[in-house]
């Protein structure tokens, strides 16, 4: 099987970002973004998705975290799309439920070739550790628009905001892992009746 890796750099006046991803990794990660709570969440993607992930960003954090979070989502989406390649032989769909104490989230995704996000997370607080949690919707919008993934995120239960969003990221990692897995019964076949994704 061809290596499923990518490295993408994205420079704008607001952010300078590099993302490296290996879909067939072991969950190693390295982050230097200036936004520790986002790094804690991306660590869940790496660990639970079994992808190796390096993300470096110099962003305009003197304004706020918005551009950094959104643009990392975009760049991660570009890198993911490049790494996943022609999608031949993959499972295509993935889903996961993940609990953390009182919190429970479900993530369902389709490497459909069409961007789409439905995200319903009724946060119990607006921020965690100074981080505005509504920015995670910008992160996932950036991701789907550039990875061409259909993504449904639902936090089903939760009282603690940290737990709510952490279960989302763990479930996202788990669902990605399933979707990009090779299905030996589908070897060399594009998993679509259209013949293309
Ligand atoms: Mn945590």
Automatic annotation (TrEMBL):
Entry superkingdom: Bacteria
Swiss-Prot/TrEMBL catalytic activity: D-erythro-1-(imidazol-4-yl)glycerol 3-phosphate = 3-(imidazol-4-yl)-2-oxopropyl phosphate + H2O
Similarity comment: Belongs to the imidazoleglycerol-phosphate dehydratase family.
Enzyme class: lyase
Record's keyword terms, sorted: Amino-acid biosynthesis, Cytoplasm, Histidine biosynthesis, Lyase
Subcellular location field: Cytoplasm
The keyword Amino-acid biosynthesis is annotated on this UniProt entry: yes
Primary site of residence: cytoplasm
Stored PROSITE patterns: IGP_DEHYDRATASE_1 (PS00954), IGP_DEHYDRATASE_2 (PS00955)
Underlying gene: hisB
Protein name: Imidazoleglycerol-phosphate dehydratase
EC number assigned by the record: 4.2.1.19
Pfam families (alphabetical): IGPD
Pathway(s) the chain acts in: Amino-acid biosynthesis; L-histidine biosynthesis; L-histidine from 5-phospho-alpha-D-ribose 1-diphosphate: step 6/9
GO BP field: L-histidine biosynthetic process
């Amino acid at each position: 099987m061809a290596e499923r890796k990518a490295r993408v750099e994205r420079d704008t006046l607001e952010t300078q970002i590099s993302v490296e991803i290996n879909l067939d990794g072991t969950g190693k990660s390295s982050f230097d973004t200036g936004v520790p709570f986002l790094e804690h969440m991306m660590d869940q993607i790496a660990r639970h998705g079994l992808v190796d992930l390096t993300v470096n960003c110099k962003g305009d954090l003197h304004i706020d975290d918005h551009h950094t979070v959104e643009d990392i989502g975009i760049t991660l989406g570009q890198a993911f799309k490049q790494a996943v390649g022609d999608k031949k032989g993959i499972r295509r769909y993935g889903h996961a439920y993940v609990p953390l104490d009182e919190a429970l989230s479900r993530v369902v995704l389709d490497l459909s070739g069409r961007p789409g996000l439905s995200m319903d997370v009724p946060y119990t607080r607006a921020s965690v550790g100074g981080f505005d949690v509504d920015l995670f919707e910008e992160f996932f919008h950036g991701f789907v628009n550039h990875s061409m993934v259909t993504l449904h995120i639902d936090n089903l239960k939760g009282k603690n905001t940290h737990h709510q969003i952490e279960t989302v990221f763990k479930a996202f990692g788990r669902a990605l892992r399933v979707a990009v897995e090779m299905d030996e019964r589908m070897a060399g076949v594009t998993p679509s009746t259209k013949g293309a994704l």
